[in-house]
Amino acid sequence: MIPARKAVCVTRQGAGLVLACIALALAGLSAAGAGATTPRGGPEDLLRLVSRADYAALSARACEEGALAFAPYARNLSALELTRLSAAELRTFSVSKRVHDWGRYDGSGDPIRLTPMAFHRRFVWDVDYIRRAKAQRLDSAHLREDGELAAVAQAFPGAEAVVYRYGGSPRVDRKDARELILVGRPRADGWCLLALTHSEDTV
Predict the structure, then answer these.
(1) In angstroms, rounded to a whole number, what is the distance separating the alpha carbons of residues 146 and 137?
(2) What are phi and psi of 163, to 5 degrees?
C-alpha cells in the first residue's frame, strides 16, 4: 500500500493556509486509496475473469499451485473427464496453439481435440453467463447430495460449486440450455478455484 503523504502545515494562521493544509491531507489519502490492494472476492469475481479468458489471473486464484482442471461435461457421469493445465500453461492459454485431448463429445464419442481458446469458446464461455444465467451456490454438503453432480463431488472432495445456468431459448424449446460450473473452496483471502466444468443438453 502506498503510504499517505504527510500534510505539511505552516504554523502561521490564515484561512488560505488552513485550506491548503486540508487539500494536502486529502491528496495523501487519495493516493493511499488508489494504491491499495483490492482483496480477493467470491465466485462472481472469478466469473468475470473467466468471461475475459484471463487465465493468468485465474491461475493466481487457483487452489492448487496455480493449476486448474477442465471438464466438458459434468452431469450424470460416473467420473469426470478432466484435463489439468499447469500455471505455465494457463499463462499462455490465450495464445497457445497446442491441441489438447479434452475428453469425448457426448453422443458421438469423438475425441475433443481443441486448442485452449477453442475449448474456452465451446465448453467454457459458450454463453454470456454474467448476463444470461442464474447462479446457484452449492456448499460441499449439498454438492454431495446432488446425484447429477456426483462425479464433481467425487473428483473434488470437500469442494463447493457455483452453477451458472442458462435456461435456453424458447425458440428451440430450451434445448440449448447449458451450465458453467465453477468448483472451488472458500479461503480467508477469498474463493479459490479448482475447476471449470460444463453441462449441456445433448439429447
Answers:
(1) 12
(2) -100, 115
